[in-house]
Structures are given as C-alpha cells and as structure tokens.
C-alpha cells in the first residue's frame, strides 16, 4: 500500500508534485487558497480538502509548496499540525527556515525543509534532486515517498542548511549562465553568433569542472580548504588588470558593464587587502568579509 500524501499549494511546482504522487499510486489530498486550481488534479483522482483541517487530517505527510514561509503560517492558521510531518519546499532565508523548525516543534509537528533543484517539469524525472534538512529519522521514514519527486539529498539537521545549499546552487547556476550571456553579447557586437562561441564556452566549463591537471574547480577547492592561495606566475593583481580590460571592452562595445564591473571591483578590493601576489582563490577572503556601510 502506498502512503497517503497531502499537498498544500498548487502552483506549477505543487501541482506537478501532486500529479507525481498520484501517478505513483498515492492517495493524494490537495488544498489551495484558490480551490478552482485543484480541478485538473481532482479529475485525475486527487481529493480536494474543503478546509485546512481536513487537509492535515488526511495524511501524516504534508508537502508544502507555496510562495514563501509566511504563506504556510497564513494557510495553516489555527489548524492542528500535531503529529504531522511538514515538508516545506518553499523558498525563504536560512534563518526563516530555522524559525519555522522551532514553530513546528512548538506545535507538536516535525519540519523537513527542502530546496528543489529542478524546475516543475523536472519533478520526478531522472536527474532531479531535492536538498533536505531537519530530523534525519523523519526523512528516512518518508524517504521512499519523497524520492518520487527526486533524489533525497540529506545535508544536515540544521533546518536552514537545505536553503543554503539551494541558494548556493542557484547563485552558481545563474551567475554562470549570465556570464555566458555577457560573453555572447560582447562577441555579438563583432558579428559572432552564440552558436559560433558555444564550443569554446563548453570547453571552458569542462576545464573548470574536470578532474585533470587543469581542473580549476578542484584546484580552487583544495586551496580554499587549505587556506593557501598560491599565485606564482598568475597573480591576482595580473587578473585584476585583465578584469579592467573586460570592463573597457564592454564599454567600448556599448553593452551593459555591471557584471564585469562588480567582478573587477571585487578583484581590486582583494588586491588592496594584501592578496595581490596571491592567486584567484584568495578572493574568498574578501567574500567572507561583511561589506562595511557605504559599500567599502
């Protein structure tokens, strides 16, 4: 017998989760502030809960996919969550998730927080995964059911950790793709198409992530964990000068220079902090420092 599941929130992500549970044979109860959004799922076999109390009573496992954590508090209101496992896959700040963990414990519930690392169409598909944090024993009890959404990647008991992983991955994803777009725009001013440039960009990304002697991600990881930032013949000062030239090239080409300018300024602030002779990995030292008031 497959276990029952309740899904709270039927936006693109929540609706896809509910369909995935239904497709895998789970009795699925749904609730949404706009009840009409549940109609397609009801046609597929879901049960629409008339009230939040009914939604919570239907299943021990309650999967929440809403705009933010405040939406969970607003939706649940005074309904009894005692004995429920709340799996909140909404976005928020790490501290917000930690406060939610305290709130759940104070109301007799367990909270698993999560960060879903695929867009809605990827839910339940090969390669999909979700970062989870919170009580591991609770995750283990429901791991088989949650695995139908994607690989269950447990990162620790701190409820905020799943969101830290999620946001770190998003930042890496976004900044890499936006950097690619900037490079395409820069070359485009000389008539070079994105398709012409793509093989070179692919080669750079492969060099970044590979395990060979030029595996820059591996090298930086080792240097950061060791706290050693060797510069040698490729010092950060040299790279900061190169970043100056990227800014100049962007301005000459008449394209937006905000991204290169931010990178250039980060390099030079690191140089000014005493890392001019060190390598690129020394930039982590500046990133770890809180910015002083005024942006200095």
From TrEMBL:
Keyword Electron transport among record annotations: no
UniProt KW keywords: Oxidoreductase
Top-level taxonomic group: Bacteria
Domain NADPH-dependent reductive aminase-like C-terminal: 158-289
InterPro entries membership: 6PGD_dom2, 6PGDH_NADP-bd, HIBADH-related, HIBADH-related_NP60_sf, NAD(P)-bd_dom_sf, RedAm-like_C
Gene Ontology MF annotations: NADP binding; oxidoreductase activity
Domain 6-phosphogluconate dehydrogenase NADP-binding: 5-155
Family: Belongs to the HIBADH-related family.
Name used for this protein in its record: 6-phosphogluconate dehydrogenase NAD-binding protein
């Amino acid at each position: 017998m497959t276990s029952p599941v309740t899904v709270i929130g039927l936006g693109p992500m929540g609706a896809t989760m509910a369909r995935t549970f239904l497709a895998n044979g789970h009795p699925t109860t749904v609730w949404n502030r706009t009840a009409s959004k549940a109609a397609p799922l009801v046609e597929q076999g879901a049960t629409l809960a008339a009230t939040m109390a009914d939604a919570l009573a239907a299943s021990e496992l309650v999967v929440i996919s809403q705009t933010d954590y405040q939406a969970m508090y607003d939706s649940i209101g005074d309904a009894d969550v005692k004995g429920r496992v709340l799996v909140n896959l909404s976005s928020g700040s790490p501290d917000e998730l930690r406060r939610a963990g305290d709130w759940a414990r104070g109301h007799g519930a367990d909270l698993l927080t999560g960060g879903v690392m695929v867009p809605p169409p990827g839910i339940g598909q090969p390669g999909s995964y979700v970062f989870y944090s919170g009580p591991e024993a609770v995750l283990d009890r429901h791991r088989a059911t949650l695995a139908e959404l994607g690989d269950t990647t447990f990162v620790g008991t701190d409820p905020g950790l799943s969101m830290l992983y999620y946001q770190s991955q998003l930042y890496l994803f976004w900044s890499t793709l936006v950097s690619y777009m900037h490079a395409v725009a820069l070359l485009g001013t000389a008539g070079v198409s994105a398709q012409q440039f793509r093989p070179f960009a692919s080669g750079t990304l492969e060099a970044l992530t590979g395990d060979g002697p030029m595996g820059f991600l591996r090298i930086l990881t080792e240097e950061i964990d060791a706290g050693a930032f060797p510069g040698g013949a490729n010092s950060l000062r040299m790279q900061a000068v190169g970043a100056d030239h990227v800014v100049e090239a962007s301005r000459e080409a008449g394209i937006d220079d905000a991204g290169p300018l931010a990178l250039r300024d980060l390099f030079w602030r690191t140089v000014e902090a005493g890392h001019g002779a060190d390598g690129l990995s020394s930039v982590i030292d500046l990133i770890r420092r809180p910015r002083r008031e005024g942006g200095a």
